[in-house]
Amino acid sequence: MNKLLTKTADMIFDRGALKFGAFKLKLHEKNPYAPLSPFYMELRGWNHPKKGPLKAEDFNLIARCLWNIAFDKFFILHAIAGIPRAGEPIVNEITRIATKPRGFRVIPLSKKETGNKRRIVPAMNFTYHAGEKALLVDDLITEADTKFEAIQALELVDQQVIGLIVLIDREQGGKEKIEQAGYPVYSAFTISQLFDYYLESGKIKQDKYQECINYLKKIK
To answer: Do 156 and 128 touch, CB atoms closer than 8 A?
Structure first.
């Protein structure tokens, strides 16, 4: 990993954003008998309603990692959208650091409450331009449901979704599902890469590393 990625990986661990235990994920809503995850990524910010561990400077670090990917992979980019809520603070920081003249505008997305469920929809009172090449941004990818909701919301208002960039791919099938649908997905890290680094740097022990890697092999 380069220095920026190493610094970001250290930040994730040192902030306590990587938690170990036995966790239910969103996938358990559809498959309650799936094995519990031995790890959980808590990438919310200090100002999130649920008060996450990340600070303002941490989102700047994440944004720099993801903007490097966007700058390298997407030559033409008219608009960028953060998947609510986790992607929004990352996009806000990307707008601060993105080099000119690679100008683009931020497209807001909203969450609509339907009973006890929420789904992503286009924001109201926003002027969309048909045919814009739009890039989606989020903190991580596990499965693909939320990502497809965001893609559909943008396509509903005639945006051309050119891809998705995330900080972490949890390697649980979401990336493959989205790419099979025709949308490229890029991540700064896979979760396996992070575990490899944390083992090599002495942040986790061999038994914890093996527990997490065995879980990833089981669910693939």
So the answer is: no
CB 87 within 8 A of CB 139: yes
Kind of pairing, strands 18-23 and 37-41? antiparallel
Task: Please give the Cα distance from 107 to 116 (Å, whole number).
Answer: 26
In degrees to the nearest 10, what's the CA dihedral of 44, 47, 52, 55?
80
Strand partners, 54: 45
What's the CATH code, domain 3-219?
A: 3.40.50.2020
Identify which of 20, 73, 69 has the alpha carbon closest to the alpha carbon of residue 168.
Answer: 69
Q: One-letter amino acid identity for 124? A: M
Mean pLDDT value of segment 123-148: 94
pTM (predicted TM-score):
0.94
Structural domain boundaries in the chain = 3-219
Mean pLDDT over each residue of the chain, to the nearest integer: 92
